[in-house]
Amino acid sequence: MSFSSDIKAELCKIPIQARAAAVAESYGILLHAGSFEPGLIRIMSRSEDVKLRAVRLFKKAFNLDFDYVSEKDEPGLKKLRMEDTVKIEKIYNAFGFETKDVTVHHINLAVLEREEHKIAFLRGSFLTGGTMTDPDKQFNLSIVCAHRAVAREMRALLMELGFEPLFSERATSSANYFRRSELISDFLTTIGAPVAAMRVLNAKIERDMRNKITRQINCDDANTSKQVEAAERQLDEVRKIFMSPMGESLSDELHEAAMLRFSNPSASISDLARLAVPPISKSAMSSRLRRLSELAKKL
């Protein structure tokens, strides 16, 4: 199953209680369904859970049954269809419209007066219009609608509830979508999918940890590379000094530093400082190596 299917299966477990909430959720389903016209209502989904929930919602909201419901074992998309114009008129009336007056679909906010009804509407919208990528790969939740006006009004509704979706318009559809994991998690929690929301947050934490480890490894590799380059340069400088008369006139501390580097070509400055007799600080050893470098430059 896809992550979208997991979300929808979780949403479909929410009990259907108040009729007004059932009307609002059905409204979201219909505006994002395959067809919502005066002569035909058709709902299509890959989810058996969504199909069964739509049947229960329509019974609760309108006391109506679909004219056709695909069998569980029927191949392809799960389908529900209603062609009885008397039934369809009753549904339109529940949303505050007459079938003969509707030329372009809009969201009738009078049906969604309470916040719980707005949330139910969003839940229904996701059931038929929503998709979500696998959060282990990418964060992208979208709700696609064939009705441009509805999609724009949906954006306003989301913003009213505290969300800030991105918006895109295509030739045959429009979409509200989120690409930030925090917004996706909040949205899923709001519409009733806290388990899916937690999975999104866990994926974000794991991704951040992987990125942090990768940055640390890259940083360590860079530091190691710089350390090796510095040690090789210092080794060359020590060789130059010992091959010149200057090697005989080094002070005891510089001679010791030169010999420690020569004997330990891959050691860090901290390691060389601990090998000195007596041990000295890292800054002291760094100072001595720097003075050796200045002497080598004179050669």
Keywords:
about 300 residues; four-stranded antiparallel beta sheet; alpha+beta; rod-shaped; 8 strands
Number of helical elements: 11
What is the mean predicted local confidence, pLDDT? 88
The computed structural class is alpha+beta
For the secondary structure, the number of strands is 8
- Rg from alpha-carbon coordinates: 35 Å
| Beginning-to-end CA distance, first to last residue | 72 Å
Helix percentage = 55-70%
Describe the structure.
The protein is an alpha+beta fold. Helices cover about 55% and strands about 10% of the residues. The strands form two sheets. It has a four-stranded antiparallel β-sheet. Strands 5-6-8-7 form a four-stranded antiparallel β-sheet. α2 (about 20-30) crosses α3 (about 50-60), α8 packs across α11 (about 280-299) and α10 (about 270-275) packs across α11 (about 280-299). The radius of gyration is 35 Å and the shape is rod-shaped. The relative contact order is 0.09.
Topology of this structure?
Elements: H1 3-11, H2 19-31, E1 35-37, E2 40-45, H3 48-62, E3 68-69, E4 78-82, H4 85-94, H5 115-129, E5 130-132, E6 141-145, H6 148-160, E7 166-169, E8 174-178, H7 181-191, H8 194-242, H9 252-263, H10 269-275, H11 282-298
Antiparallel strand pairs: 1-2, 2-4, 3-4, 5-6, 6-8, 7-8
Helix pairs in contact: 2-3, 2-5, 7-8, 8-9, 8-11, 9-11, 10-11
Compact description:
The protein contains 11 helices and 8 strands.
